[in-house]
Amino acid sequence: MSEQSAAPAADLENTLHLELKDGTITITLRPDLAPLHVERIKTLTRQGFYNGVVFHRVIDGFMAQGGDPTGTGTGGSELPNVAAEFTQKAKFVRGTCGMARAESPDSANSQFFIMFAPGSFLDGQYTIWGEVTAGMDLDDKIKKG
Known about the structure:
The chain is an alpha+beta fold. It has one domain: Cyclophilin-like (Cyclophilin), CATH 2.40.100.10. Helices cover about 10% and strands about 25% of the residues. The longest helix is centred in the N-terminal third of the chain and has 12 residues, at about 35-45.
């Protein structure tokens, strides 16, 4: 991922580009919903943590998950975990970006997912930190690895 450096109308501080082999997905960050998670995504992006990291879990019609440097689904950054920031102000719909976690609600670290379709069963259970605002057609083409 890389931080935005283009359109003047965009909120540059809260726009990320996720560069895929077929193009770029633009993600608008939502610090109003999850300031701690947004700051974590920004920190890891600035460190280059996500560069070259694959989507290790892709479920057609549901979501694509990445952010694990080991590519196994069990890895994360060396930073401490982030406490849950669940909200009722937004829902898991197509294009929503959420933070993956283990069983504990306060175990989010670096892994994230992008929804291919609505997933209301995730509402209030996982932190929403952003939304795809351009390139969703590319998101639909994400393959595991």
